[in-house]
Amino acid sequence: MYLVHGWGGWGLQLAAFVPALVADRFRVVAYDAPSHGDSAPGPEGPGRSTLLEIADAFQAVVDAEGPAYGVIAHSLGAAAITHALKCGSQAERVVFVAAAVDFAETLDQLQGVFRFGPRTRSSFLYRFSRRFGPMESFEVAGVIGDLAGRRELPALLAIHDRSDRETHYEGSVRVASVWPGAVVELTDGLGHRRILRDAAVAEAAHRHLSADRAAASEPPEPQERMLG
Question: Which of 12, 39, 33, 14 is nearest to 96 (CA)?
Fold first, then answer.
């Protein structure tokens, strides 16, 4: 089981999810992405990183630690896991918590905070596309909509708080609408980070991640048969 933090985060931000998973005999791996937490800088240099680097870091950890049965990803970590899935990563079950799903939405928020104008925005978008391609190509619902037509996707539980000011819950709803079989659970009053420490959220994630194990342990349904 892998715990994937978001932008500016660190692995043990997701520590509240660990006890129930360990008690259920899952092996849990948490790590800090390049230039985050205790990790050294990656190719982007000190204090810098990108979604692509975070996605590559996830795959590198999986290559070192073993296949990912399940993943819990917070904020930008959800976008990074989506990109990793696009690039061939595999998992059986995934939990997105307060997922960041649209860079254009993030840019809107930055523009509101820093009050830069259309010329600065246009320049940023040009530089972004020159390096990474069109910003819309990273929009999670679009990536998943394309992937869903080509391969089976992990079972998704998307948890999001209605009062989250950093990533809007509508984004998780939009992603779930194109992710076959996805389930959305909405909370109230937890915001973007406190949601990681909420016991009910941790329990919901555990139920989702252990669902196959629980089903396998249930006694078989009684069956009728003819005796002749």
Answer: 14
